[in-house]
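> tool_call: predict_assembly(chains=three)
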Amino acid sequence: MKTISCMKIDEQLLQSYGAEIKTYKEKELIFREDDSPNFYYQIIDGGVKVNNFNDDGKEFIHNILGKGQSFGDAHLFIEKKYTVNAFAIKPTTLIVLPKKKFINLVEEHPKISLEINACLSLRLYFKMKMMHDMVSQQPSARILGLFNYLRSYTDCEDQHSFNVQLTRQQIADLTGLRVETIIRTIKKMEKENLLKIEDRKIYY
DNA sequence: GCATTAATGATAA
DNA sequence: TTATCATTAATGC
């Protein structure tokens, strides 16, 4: 079966609809909780994390995105405010298209509309799979669930050599576990051949 | 040197 | 068993 990957929208096309290039510094806010979604965002270069904070002020990361990926798209089809924040985690260049123009683009390009549908569906599918693993008490199950989810995003589906480009702290914030638990668990998992660690980098 | 990230040990819940 | 706290080592700028 041919998988429909999450194709980014052609940058030229976006620009022909009036998209702008925006740059963000590390740790700069892109949008915050309760903002009204007004733009389609696609990453040209850099990285973005989507998170929020619980009552104790602890961070929970919902997602970390890289080059070529879009975010916040689901909010453009509904009238709801953001429930999360988005931050640049490194110097980042985005291409940004206002909501109305995005809708125009989608209306005039049914094929792209279908791709966006497939993309959103795929994300939902893997998110649900991950949620299933996340309620597990076993730290290794949560980590595996997260890694499977992350791998589903990447184009390069090289089995066994997917490089997890997250710090252990970020993995902890994504799984709701402590960083020490992550460190100790992934070492155990390496011994069980569930993943590889080379040069402190995690390969799954 | 300083900041960040990773690793490890001790102890409490 | 995991969280928490403290400490130390390694890494990158």
